[in-house]
Write a structure and sequence with these properties.
binds 1,6-di-O-phosphono-beta-D-fructofuranose; Rossmann fold; 23 helices; 4-stranded parallel beta sheet; 2 domains; 577 residues; alpha/beta
């Protein structure tokens, strides 16, 4: 074991039980944490007797689009069949497996339970199985920073939020030197499988890694797990990404509280930006849970080709109409990814991404960088860029994340809306078309929801995903994503298995290049959740139909504690389609 690893290995236990100078004491935990630690997550019926399960194979699969290109890029892992587990344990005893687990990207409630499920799953395969956690995300795998996760160590993390058990990171795994370094590190530890818990980008990388090892006959399996509060890693076989359920409940509680404040004081318009880097699933789900006055959905904006001015004018007219009824207050939900859906902004951001991918780091003074960028933009984009407030211009030229994405959580889209609406309302006032008062406050609900203690749904789902990943490793599989389906039914009817990752892929332009990536699930404008919003949004705009969901409940009646999101329920309600 390397020195770094030895030191880090001791750290978490020390933090839990020891003061800096070696004096042992119990770290305080809340009463809820104590009670929650005793919760036993439920498992799909097929895994109740352990992870050494019989497999059922479906037909050969193909990628969602660009089949020839994806097949050529993934010759060893393309076309694998879908796997489901039978409710039958294999007679022959399974061998011990050693797994290295990585938490990748943004935190999502339930990550610790995936690790717990993985641990219990491999122990059910064989008591000598071992789980190693690579520290700080995919970078830990390459740099050989790890701990061994033991039963004792894991105990305090069960059913808790956060990714602090091993930390997370956004290092992009895509180069062969990284793959080779990871293989050497795994080899030294006797690791025969890597489980990557991440979003679409991280699972794309899991797929590249699986292909590389399989193609080179390196005996390391790679399995992915669908994580992201954003809810955009889903498809016909992956019904939900974990963390979405809990995060939406946390935000909805806060939105409900603001609604109650607004209707009590009757003097503020609250503009709430909600996380969701690309898709607007979180905003849509929170709207269905709380019934705000205005809900912007990025996908609809793109579909209707709405300009920034169109959006602002629409919102100003709702505000003016409410003012006529004496309602100078309200709630607006803005998805954080909105800006990229506004057609002129999308083109602008695309151009900026390509220019910035060339890495012009030499521009230290921001204004020099701005002049340079404007000079390289098309005339239309340069015009759009220069109409934006100064702050937003600077936010748009901030560094991209390692996957080449604009960091939308750092762009104050809700403030942009507030400023522009105020200008519009003043114009309406001077024309005698608006007589109200506009006093606005902005909020950003994002990080608040990512590390909450998982809801019962996420606690169970995540534990099941981890356990399923262990079963896939035990069965010698690689290039699969752990899948637990039939989620609107009781856990006993949940269907566990594996979905080939290549099946979810297509080719997209990223960082100025064509790349194979998992297709993101955007809000479907023909889908039931969006249709549900359409049914009511006019009356929610003019009247007050606020709903106050209150905090997540972990103990109590099932209709309060064991419910699924509106999104999941409506997506599976075929009668409504
Ligand atoms: P993942 O896609 O990695 O799950 O992260 C999603 C997210 O929470 C987005 O909603 C948000 O825009 C982004 O992470 C913020 O990233 P960071 O944690 O790097 O600030």
């Amino acid at each position: 074991m390397s020195r770094v690893s030895q030191v880090v290995n001791e750290q978490p236990r020390k933090n839990r039980e020891t003061l800096a100078n070696g004096v042992t004491m119990k770290v305080d935990i809340s009463s809820l944490q104590k009670a929650r630690a005793k919760y036993k997550p439920k498992l799909p019926a097929s895994l109740l007797n352990g992870a050494n399960v019989e497999l059922r194979y479906g037909e050969k699969t193909q990628s969602i689009a660009d089949q020839e290109k994806i097949e050529a890029l993934f010759p060893s892992t393309y076309g694998l069949p879908i796997i489901t587990f039978n409710n039958k344990i294999l007679g022959n005893p399974s061998k011990a497996v050693n797994i290295g687990v990585v938490l990748s990207g943004g935190q999502a409630p339930g990550g610790h339970n995936v690790v717990a499920g993985l641990f219990d799953g491999i122990k059910s395969l064989h008591q000598n199985s071992k789980l190693f956690g690579f520290l700080g995300g995919p970078g830990g795998l390459v740099d050989n920073k790890y701990i061994e996760i033991t039963a004792d160590f894991l105990e305090g993390y069960r059913n808790t939020g956060g990714f602090d058990i091993i930390g997370s990171g956004r290092t992009k795994l895509e180069r062969t030197e990284q793959f080779d370094a990871a293989a050497r590190n795994c080899d030294a530890l006797g690791i025969n499988a890597i489980v990557i818990i991440g979003g679409d980008d991280s699972n794309t990388n899991a797929c590249l890694l699986a292909e590389y090892y399989e193609g080179k006959h390196i005996l390391i399996q790679v399995i992915g797990c669908p994580k992201t509060i954003d809810g955009d890693l889903k498809n016909a076989h992956i019904e939900a990404s974990f963390g979405f359920d809990t995060a939406c409940r946390v935000y909805s509680e806060l939105i409900g509280n603001l609604q109650r404040d607004a209707i009590s004081s009757k003097k503020y318009w609250h503009f709430i930006k909600l996380m969701g880097r690309s898709a607007s699933h979180i905003t849509l789900e929170c709207a269905l849970q709380t019934h705000p006055n205005i809900t912007l959905i990025g996908e609809e904006v793109a579909h209707r080709k709405m300009t920034l001015i169109d959006i602002v004018n629409d919102m100003a007219s709702v505000i003016a109409k409410r003012a006529e009824k004496g309602k100078n207050y309200g709630i607006v939900l803005v998805p954080e990814g909105l800006i990229e859906f506004i057609p002129e902004m999308n083109i602008l951001i695309g151009e900026l991404n390509e220019i910035m991918a060339e890495k012009h780091e030499a521009f230290k003074p921001q204004d020099e960088k701005l002049d340079f960028l404007v000079g390289k933009l098309s005339p239309e984009s340069a015009k759009a860029y220069l109409t934006l407030p100064h702050e937003i211009r600077h936010q748009l030229m901030m560094d991209r994340d390692p996957h080449g994405n604009v960091q939308v959580s750092r762009i104050d889209t809700e403030k942009l809306m507030m400023e522009m609406i105020e200008v519009r309302l003043n114009a309406l006032k001077s024309e005698g078309k608006y007589k109200g008062k506009f006093s606005s406050l902005n909020h950003f609900f994002g990080y608040e929801g990512r590390c909450s203690a998982p809801s019962n749904f996420d606690a169970d789902y995540c534990y099941g995903l981890g356990y399923t990943a262990a079963a896939l490793v035990g069965a010698g599989k690689t290039g699969y994503m752990s899948s637990v389906r039939n989620l609107t039914k009781p856990e006993t009817e949940w269907i566990a298995g594996g979905i080939p990752i290549t099946m979810m892929m297509n080719v997209e332009r990223r960082h100025g290049e064509d790349k194979p990536v998992i297709q993101k699930a955007l809000v479907d404008l023909d889908g039931n959740p969006f249709k549900e919003l359409l049914k009511s949004r006019e009356s929610w705009a003019s009247e007050d139909h606020f709903v106050y969901p209150g905090p997540i409940q972990y103990f109590g009646p099932p209709e309060v504690c064991d419910v699924v999101t509106f999104t999941l329920a409506l997506e599976h309600d075929k009668s409504n389609s």
